[in-house]
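Thread: Newbie trying to understand structure tokens

Hi all, I'm a second-year student working on a class project, and my supervisor (Dr. K.) asked me to get a predicted structure for one chain before our next meeting. I've only ever worked with sequences, so writing a 3D structure as a token string is new to me. If someone could post the tokens and maybe explain what I'm looking at, I'd be very grateful. Here's the chain:
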Amino acid sequence: MLQEAPKKSIARYAMEYGVYFGIYLILKFVLMTLGMGSLIASFFSEILLIALPFVLYYIMLRYKKQEPENAHFSQLWMFGIFLFFFASLLSGIVEYVYYRYINPTYIEMQMAALLDLIEEITQAQNSEMLQIMRTGLEKGGAPSPIEMVFQTIWTNVFLGSLLSIIVALIVSRKKVNKNFIK
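---
Reply by user tm_fold:
Sure, no problem. This is what the structure looks like when written as tokens:
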């Protein structure tokens, strides 16, 4: 007697698609870090950032085609949250390796550049607050690589959940042709 294969859960689909989406986020991260010295890499990093909603839309359409009876707004939204979580875990590994072993001064350099930018914008060279922030940075006040990775993961999940609301609303209303995505 033939048994029907058990249905996959939303989390299982998100894990599978999260691998591909994680590779996308890794590529975006690599181009972003290379973009510090290359205008072309920075340009392509921005293109990947702008294309992110379209990639999410495509992935959600694929999920809806595979699970048409479970592709309601709430399920699509949950799928998007899981997708960003699992993809962020994968990209977090690469980010940790980069922050910890490849470029250990990256976080401090970015924070110093941010303080310089704040100083330039506000034109407050002798601001007491900026001096306190610079002193804290010199004394090791920058986040550790693992703290930076956790912050990035939770930021990706939060912003991804907001983006998923919009994309899930669009995808849930769209009629999917069975031959559209293979």
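A couple of things are worth pointing out once you decode it. The chain has a mean pLDDT of 88. The first helix runs from residue 10 to 34. Feel free to ask follow-ups in this thread.
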